[in-house]
Each structure stands twice: as structure tokens, then as C-alpha cells.
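Researcher: Quick sanity check before group meeting.
Model: Go ahead. Protein one:
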Amino acid sequence: MTMTSYQSVETALATLKRERDKLNVAIAALEGVVTTNGTSGTAAIRATDAPAPVVSTQYARMTMKEASVHFLRSLPVHEPQSTRIIADAIRAGGIRSQSVSLYRTLYNVLNVDSERDNGLIAKIGSNFGLKEWGNV
């Protein structure tokens, strides 16, 4: 194997591992917690269910807002999520916080961004989604 071939394989492997990390976080957030809402028939994630633990570091070097936006973009369905679901997902993705309550800090970060004209986050009821989705 030539050095160029080896580098191509290494690059492809690194890319696949990053994609796998993204999928693992999304799967962890959705797996086992999707229920059907009898009134609207849409999928909803119950805030009382925590995602399965995933060892990942994809969010380790991101801010809470960046990690939250990344997580929301990774969802297969543009459905607003509770602060608890987002907090559990970004924690599973490697976010570390010195805060006494990651949940409260994240809620404040998301809420402040949702109130900004140029913010990325949209607040829908008590849940958060992305303004770019357009349907929120």
C-alpha cells in the first residue's frame, strides 16, 4: 500500500467515525423514547426518558449552543425537543460543564438565543427547535 493510499484510507476512516458519532448521539436520543402522540399522530420524545449512554466526544470542543444546534440538525425529523432531551444528548456527545445544573444553564443559553433576532434557536412552547426549519 502506498503512502497516498494509506492516507486516503485513514481519511475515509476518520470521516466514517465522525459520522458514526453523529448517528450514535441521534440514535441514543431517539431510541426507546419515541411515542405516538394520540392527538396529533406525530412522533414525540418523552422528556422523562433518557437516551442510552453513548461514549462520544463529538461535542467536547463545542459550546452548549453549538452542540445543541448540531444535535437538532442531526435529528431525522424536525421536531422540537425538550431541554432535558437536548441536555442528555449533548452530555452523551461529550459536553462537559462546571455548572451546578447543566439543564438550567442549557435552558438559559437556548432561551436567550431564541429571543435574539439573529439567533438559530426557536422556542416552541416549552421545547426548542431551529428557526431554519421554518415550520416552528
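Researcher: Fine. The other one?
Model: Protein two, sequence then structure:
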Amino acid sequence: MISLNQNGDSSNALPEKRQPARKTLISNIANDVRVNIVGIAVSVRPLVLDDGTGQVSVRGSFEGKIGDTVMIIGRPMNVQSETYLSPEIIKRLPDAGWLSVRKKELGKEPKRIIIKQEPIAAKTEEHENDKHADLLLLIKKLDTGDGVEIEDLISKSTIKDCQPLIDHFIRCGEVFEVSPGKIKVLE
């Protein structure tokens, strides 16, 4: 952007210095001019990022898939009380560890997600009476790649009143909403 001098002439004008992108979490982007966000893609058309503190929609093209770790430098915009990012740079990162790095940079403790590489049958035997583990296993079994409808999950679950447990999973980041009413385990 070029500034004009007092006479309205740009001949001696110097370009304005561009604001640096501030590294931040999604929950803190509302009043920034430029931000640098790292998050997990929970939707790709449109791109929606989740960093564990919130979700934000990104207006721009993204050639990736759900579950990719993405860094975006862009400008937050507010339209009809919805905040979204207008990206300048969208970059896929090699793994989800970068989300933990970003949270440590900002002094936030990342959520601990422990993924065990065991067969599902072994887990079922091990956690026979554990509602938490059983519901997560059911979500994984019913997921064909694009998430599980919450209504289907509730109807096929043997756990009584599992809606509060599903809400807890979403709040804690163990599952995420691919689209309204559809969830997927974060792996």
C-alpha cells in the first residue's frame, strides 16, 4: 500500500510497512490485523481449521484432506458476526506435532492425545465396562471415512444417554465435527 504526501502526490511517498502476522490460537483472532494459525483441517470444502480452542472457516482454495495439519497466515474478517480468515498463505505441515509446538510457543498446554496401535478387538476386551472407550470404538467402527452421524451413533450404541459423553468428546478434542451432526475420531 502506498501513502500519499500532504499534496495528494505519491511521487515521494514510501510504501507502508506491512504488519507482521501474530502467532495465536483460533480463540484469540478477533481483533488482529494479520494472524499465523496452526490447526487441523476438520473440513476441506470449505476449509475449517480446529486447534483445540475453537474452529475458524477459511475463504480460499485448499488441496488437502480432513485431518491434515495446516498453517495459515491471513487476515481475520467478520461478516454477520461470523469470523473467518482470508488467507495469504496456506501451507500443509508434515504432522500434527506442529500444533503442539505452536501451543507450547504460546504457553498453552496441548491436549494429550494418546493413540495406541492395537487391534480394535483387543481394545474391546480390555475396556469391556468402560463407556468412554466403548463409545470411541463404536465411532471408529461405524466411520467409513467421512464421519459418523450422531443420530446413527446414538441409535446403535448400547450406552444409555450417550449424548453428554459425545458432547464431552467434542469439547475435549477426542472427536471433531466434520459437519453439523457428523463426528470423527481425531487420529
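Researcher: One line on it for the slide.
Model: The first strand starts at residue 22 and ends at 23.
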